[in-house]
Write a structure and sequence with these properties.
Layout (H helix, E strand, L loop, with lengths): L1 E8 L2 H14 L4 E8 L7 H11 L5 E6 L2 E3 L4 H12 L3 E3 L8 E7 L2 E6 L6 E5 H6 L13 H12 L7 E3 L6 E3 L16 H17 L9
Length: about 220
């Protein structure tokens, strides 16, 4: 079975749209967990992603979505799983030009992967092996920024991904991300103000480089 986790904060309309598209375009049986951050119980991205992981530990393949990212075409989940098996990469980050710099392409067993310089973390794919050998997101971050970067770096260091931030080339045909639309990029309907977002990102970048360095972190 596949597991799907959604993290959301103060965007009920987007969450509803995300859930509706997942239900419409997912052909495989799936287990869904929605991690809701709120002003009354503000935990931040890392803890909410870990909440998803903890509720999906019995799943073989896990997809973590932001609430403004969702599938738009049937077969999206089987495409990711097939590309993972062909490339032996247990982790993918959905990225898209020109929003993130494409560094190159890798061809593994006839399958093309795009390699990016960074990642937005709007949709992340994992196999069960990641949870066993790398484990949880580091929870020492502030509420926003770099949590998934640190996790992806640890996954790559463990040998379980083809590159730091790799993505199957045709994944863009299956997934919509609000952040990856020209009129929305980084000035979109974010649940966090842009100035706050930038400050938190800078703070968490330093935390990532200094603290998030153990390959395995237990749940």
């Amino acid at each position: 079975m596949i597991g799907i986790g959604i993290t959301t904060y103060n965007r009920p309309e987007m969450l509803l749209q995300c859930c509706e598209n997942i239900e419409r375009f997912t052909d495989s049986p799936y287990k869904l967990h929605i991690a809701v951050d709120s002003d009354l119980d503000r935990q931040g991205v890392a803890k909410r992603k870990n909440e998803c992981f903890k509720n999906l530990l019995d799943c073989d393949f896990i997809f973590l979505f932001d609430d403004d990212c969702y599938p738009t075409k049937s077969g999206w989940e089987t495409y990711c799983i097939e590309q993972s098996k062909k490339t032996n990469s247990h982790h993918f980050c959905y990225n898209k030009e020109p929003f993130y710099q494409l560094q190159g392409r890798s061809f593994i067993n006839g399958t093309e992967l795009e390699i990016y310089a960074n990642s937005g973390g709007v949709m992340l794919f994992y196999t069960k092996e990641i949870l066993k050998k790398v484990g949880a997101f580091y929870e020492g971050y502030d509420t926003y920024g770099f949590e998934h970067i640190g996790h992806s770096i640890r996954i790559f260091r463990s040998g379980l991904s083809a590159d730091l931030f790799c993505c199957p080339t045709d994944l863009k045909d299956y997934i919509y991300a609000n952040d990856y639309e020209i009129e929305n990029f980084f000035v979109n309907m974010s649940s966090i103000e842009i100035e706050t977002k930038n400050a938190l990102t800078l703070k968490n970048k330093e935390i990532c480089s200094k603290e998030d360095n153990k390959i395995f972190i237990p749940f």
